[in-house]
Amino acid sequence: MHIKSKIYNKTLYVLLCGELDEHSATHARLTLDKLFSGSEFNQIIIDLSELEFMDSTGIGVLIGRYKKMRSRQIPIFICNPSKHAEKIFRMTGLYEIMPKIV
Amino acid sequence: MKNSNFMEVTFKALSINESFARLCVAGFCVQLNPSLDEIGDIKTAVSEAVTNCVVHAYPKRNGTITLRCEIEGDVVKIVVKDQGIGIKDIEKAREPFYTTKPSEERSGMGFSVMESFMDKVEVEHNGDKGLVVTMYKQITSNSMQVSNAS
Q1: What is the set of domains in chain B, with CATH numbers?
Q2: ipTM of the complex
Q3: In a domain, A102, yes or no
Q4: How many structural domains is chain A composed of?
Q5: Is A86 part of the contact surface with chain B (CB cutoff 8 Å)?
Q6: Is B33 a catalytic residue?
Q7: Domain at A27, CATH number
Q8: pLDDT, tens only, B70-94
């Protein structure tokens, strides 16, 4: 998996590419934590349009990042989930803490 | 004549083998002409079952995972088996959000995802060693029928 990012209008845009599973989770956690540690943004949008696969390990990764950003009061939004990612998000109630945006 | 086929592979319980496992099953199931949605459901469920083995089964040693896929008619049966430490309370482990490793950012949704994406999921002890997860899914779409008819 690889992660692309850019900051525009005080928003950190993160594009997750490839597969997010147990094998790639550590890399994803470390990379996201490094990106999220910046201070030039006041919200984060995670774009999943290029995420080819995700299982429930991805939920753990996202909730972990949410917990870290909550203390800084920086909201995280999700956009462009695949049908399968959407199903997992709805099952787990993830959208209650990371709302989906279009 | 009713389809009948199987394949079985054994591999090390390493996270790098998760993508191998799901692609292996997906490739085998192609003979039933499933839809992309059905293949996605199967890949996700296989990934959850294999991840459980990788994360929980062998805390102190290297172990193996055996993945078997059977086709009977239009039903796919997938068996994921390990010889690890097993789970004492299987019913508890199947509850949504239950995890023995909350500090590792585990969601505890593995079995719930398997149950949601497959038609039926059975979890049993593998004798006195490890766990056997058996999952079933009927392939209903048969995506090739459309192109065959045209």
Answers
A1: 4-145 (3.30.565.10)
A2: 0.92
A3: no
A4: 1
A5: no
A6: no
A7: 3.30.750.24
A8: 999 999 999 999 999 988 889 999 9
